[in-house]
Structure formats: structure tokens, C-alpha cells
Amino acid sequence: MTTQYRSASPAETEALGRRLCEGLIQKGLRRAFVALFGEMGVGKTAFARGFGAALGISGVKSPTYTVVNEHRGTPVPLFHFDMYRIQDPDDLTSIGYDDYLMREGYVLCEWSERIEDELPPDAIRVTVARTDGENGRSITVQGDFA
């Protein structure tokens, strides 16, 4: 299933992230992978803030230098990755990527285009792209989340 959304502001992008996460919670899913795609500055982290807010997590920031931030959320934890600095599959091994995929919780992965071949086949794919004006965004969600 592919769904297209429009966002006119960072707040609307956050609201969509929250909505997607709430859909996962309502389905009773204890594990999910959300792959975020898009160029720098399009709003991937705004989407992540909203997603985290649905789990009761405030202050979600992009883990560019740490690569992954673990957050305790309700009902499940959030593992927030930023793959911008990942160069090859060995880098994924060194951060324990496969271990996170086995754990209960939601994985939210920014810069998923950097690890396309390593994404789970059931990943929910979210692509954020610029549209009209400074804050206009087109957000495409592929996968079953609601």
C-alpha cells in the first residue's frame, strides 16, 4: 500500500510521524522498521520527533555522530538510527545493527538510502521530498501501518 501526503510545515510533518507510530501501536505491533528517505534538511528528523512523541518520548534528535540513540518508549522502545556516516556493511556490524533488528521495539532509520540492501523486506518506507515553498513537503509512505 502506498499513500501520499502533503505537509506545509514542520509541525504537520511531525503530526504525520506521530500518526504513523500511533497506527503501529493500535495494531499491537511490538516490532517495526521505518526507513526514512530524503535529502538533507527535508524533515526526516521532524518526522522522527513526531514518531517519538507517540511513544511518550520528547527531544528526539538526529543521532548523526552516535549513529543510534535508544529511547525508552511506551509501549515499546525506539531505536533511532542515522545512517549518513555509514560507508559499508562492516560499519553496520560494528554498531550491532542486526541485534537491533531482533529486539522488540521500533527502528526508525534516517538516510536509509545508504543501506538499501540491508533493509528488512517488511520495512515501512517513508520518502520526504521538497515541494512548493520553503516548508512544502511531499511524503510518501509505502507499507501497512494503519
Structure keywords:
4 helices, Rossmann fold, 146 residues, 7-stranded mixed sheet, alpha/beta
- Mean pLDDT across all residues, rounded? 91
* Number of extended strands: 7
**SS class:** alpha/beta
The CATH architecture name reads 3-Layer(aba) Sandwich
Describe, in short, the structure shown.
By secondary structure, this protein is of the alpha/beta class. It has four helices and seven strands.
Overview of the structural elements:
By secondary structure, this protein is α/β, with parallel strands linked by helices. It has 4 helices and 7 strands. A hairpin with a 6-residue loop joins strand 6 (124-130) and strand 7. Helix 1 (10-26) crosses helix 2. The radius of gyration is 14 Å and the shape is globular. The mean pLDDT is 91.
Secondary-structure map:
Blueprint: E1 2-7, H1 10-26, E2 31-37, H2 44-54, E3 68-71, E4 78-82, H3 89-94, H4 97-102, E5 105-110, E6 124-130, E7 137-142
Helix pairs in contact: 1-2
